[in-house]
């Protein structure tokens, strides 16, 4: 395991399916601490630590989805020798999807399932919520989503630490264009909050066109960061999707 890219928040499970979790824009591996602990009895959970945050804060964050996914695919590639799955939330859903595409193009074993959370399907043009130019627009969007507390956003020193990653991530999303590539071969489960202010249910359902495997849409109560309050429900969805009858989903 590449200690640069991955963090564990529960005991390693060498005999379990490995779940690699990709955080949201501006987010860090610690965003998956509750879910990791909830899943630790069933899966070996690795949370991705992007450059430019927490213990990697001195590294330059990626300003391109393509470049970021290239690096992530390289980091994940050694893990594909054993059963694995991917889970991405918000921007992390984009990166999980693009990482899976790159692994498939390289001929690597595919994931048992990809879980895409809090994100609509990709399109040729970025959505209005990704086209944010100024720091003020970015901060207004972050406040509206509720994923970053006022303790950070209202503290000038803490805000100065997180803004480079936020600028890079939103810049990458604003420049991202779907290239019309082949759908994934593996099953996909999409999760979305029923009160998400930036992802409509029909936008989440459009992921159906991006897999040639099975498709499952789960709508949970809550907003964009529904999974902070619905950890047990998400745990059950993930474990059912991966471990039903002890067979690959």
The proportion of residues forming helix, as a percent range, comes to 25-40%
- Kindly report how far apart the N and C termini lie: 24 Å
**CATH architectural grouping:** 3-Layer(aba) Sandwich
The name of the CATH topology is Rossmann fold
Count of domain modules: 1
Kindly name the structural category: alpha/beta
Taken as a percent bin, the fraction of beta residues is: 5-15%
How much is the average pLDDT?
92
DSSP summary, beta strand count: 7
Low-confidence spans = 245-249
Main beta-sheet annotation: 7 strands, mixed
Bulk shape: globular
Outline of this structure?
The chain is 35% helix and 14% strand. With 249 residues, it is α/β, with parallel strands linked by helices. Mean pLDDT is 92; it is low at 245-249.
Report what the structure shows:
The protein is 35% helix and 14% strand. With 249 residues, it is of the alpha/beta class. Helix 1 crosses helix 8 (231-243) and helix 2 crosses helix 3 (91-105). Pfam families: Thioesterase. Keywords: Hydrolase. GO terms for molecular function: hydrolase activity. Belongs to the thioesterase family.
Topology, please?
Blueprint: E1 6-7, E2 18-22, H1 33-39, E3 44-48, H2 65-76, E4 84-89, H3 91-105, E5 114-117, H4 135-145, H5 150-153, H6 156-175, E6 188-193, H7 201-205, E7 215-220, H8 231-243
Parallel strand pairs: 2-3, 2-4, 4-5, 5-6, 6-7
Antiparallel strand pairs: 1-3
Write a concise keyword list for the protein shown above.
249 residues, Rossmann fold, 35% helix, globular, disordered C terminus, AB_hydrolase_fold, Alpha/beta fold hydrolase, hydrolase activity, hydrolase, Thioesterase
